Amino acid sequence: MKAVAPNAFHNSDDRPDPPKCHEKTRIAVISKIMDWITGKVDADALMLWLYGPAGVGKSAIARTIAELCEPRKLLLASFFFFRSNSTRNTTKPLVANIAYRIACVIPAARRHIEMAIEADPLLLSCSLETQFAKLVVGPLQALAEQGMFSQTPLPPLILIDGLDECLDRTSQMKLIQLLSSCQLPLKFLIASRPEQDIKFAFASISTKVIVSHLELNDDFNAYEDIRLFLTDKLSNIKQHHPFRGELPAPWPREGQIASLVQKSCGQFIYASLVARFVDSPRHLPAQRLDIVLGIRPPVHRDLPFAELDALYTFILSSSIDPLLTVKVLGVRHVLQQDFSMVRELRDIVRMIEGILGLESGDVRSALSDLSSLVEIKDNMATLERNAIFFQHSSFQDFLLNKERSKEYSIDVLECHRVSVQWVLRAFPRAGPRASHIMPDAVDLHVHLLKLPLTAELKHDLENFSFHDYLETQLERLEKAGQTANLNLIRDRLTKDFFGTLTYLCQSSEFHDHHFNLFIDDITASVNRHPSAEKFHLLSTIWFVLQKPLKSYPSTELSVKIARQIFELHRAPLPFVTPSGLSIGSKILS
């Protein structure tokens, strides 16, 4: 009995409100699992892997399945892992728990189990494989040979929940391999997040063993189930809460429930925590709901999502390099704010590796342990390749709130800084251009506007070639066949950059410095062409520049730019005032 973890059973009282499915919810997924257990579907499958992102309700489903199976004589044993319980975050008590339940469900097996322990008193300190063979397989095989199950079938289900919360990843993989080799007429239901090691372990199972996979995705209409759950829970609060008389009418409003459903992103843990937080008997429910919705700040550090925060903290702390992982997600966050003209040509993973100075593959490695929270795939909306998606908006909220995420919070300012630095240093005034992956695909002015003008930033700006940055973007668009709006794009990028300089520097000196550099670059570009082509080039350049020039703060500088352009071919100035900035008929003819 000392080797057993009593809190790991599905019906233990380890918590006052254990997760289980609310009435009228998760009907489709529960039905599918029960059909597998009873042999109506996938009858030959030894194992069923129920998987999905963090917080989608896997444990609630597993507990509900156990409660449905137990009275029907279908449940042989269950084990619920839990990360913060030292008796449940390891496989050490697993076989002892299974053997204990076998002895309870099949009393005839008890003597066989006792004999195995009497024969080897240290059996429970042996390997998992040895324990399973002597305490589970051996006793059940002995009873089967005696004809024990010819009249009364062996309860088939052994249910294991939260395998990803076992802290030893090698043990996770060993357990999957062990169960897949079982020759008894049993069925193993394993619920977990789709972590890298667990996915690999299932993929490594012999092809002779049939494993059924069940992903908790949008096919099971989790959003509608969450809406039903919240509607029912809040209605119950409205009827029975001690402060129900203080509730406004109507409460809750339909829009509030819709907002909660949207915020949940299919996470039942989110909905459950909301209901529990609002139901606090010492607080006004309407105020608590406002806190959840962000309308009212929390009081006295009474945070509604402490349990969810603990889950996110655990997953991050278990990753290969938690701080690097947070940096990667931080840069991803600021890149999402871009309005880059070449957005559809971007490879987000490679850009982040460039910004953070990482090797190829480092981003995927850093995020490999977060597969239940983030996903790398192409963005069909923006056409970006290898974009990083948050499975739950609540995870991003957690990372951006330092009070919640503490050492794992995203430093947004630092992420803007490294993104700007990467771009500025990729296009130096002197020396070879850095061989970065698409630094021009960063919308520079968006990130510059977020930064203070430090000495380092000023130095990088002074040595930056805006002309090269601009032309690289335009060349990339041209090669991709996107030539329809090149002049408009040049116009927008030029105005954005010089407008940002004016805002950032609060003086004309820095602004004028870059204007002069920009014109020098244009002059050099034109002079590289034969004289016969210069007139056409200059006219084209003037057409492109006249719109952004109108918005520049320095009228004298506009005149200066125009003079420098037209002096290249010694033509008289064809305009009256900078405000008009129109090409004369002589130039157009």
UniProtKB/TrEMBL annotation:
The protein's matches in Pfam families, at most eight in alphabetical order, are given as:
NPHP3_N
Bias type Basic and acidic residues, positions:
11-21
Q: Which SUPFAM superfamilies match?
A: P-loop containing nucleoside triphosphate hydrolases (SSF52540)
Nephrocystin 3-like N-terminal domain residues = 33-193
Q: Does the keyword Repeat apply?
A: yes
Give the residue ranges for region: Disordered: 1-21
The protein's matches in InterPro entries, at most eight in alphabetical order, are given as:
NPHP3-like_N, P-loop_NTPase
**UniProt keywords, alphabetically:** Repeat
Asked whether the keyword Repeat is assigned, the reply is yes
Q: Highest taxon of the source?
A: Eukaryota
Protein name in the entry = Nephrocystin 3-like N-terminal domain-containing protein
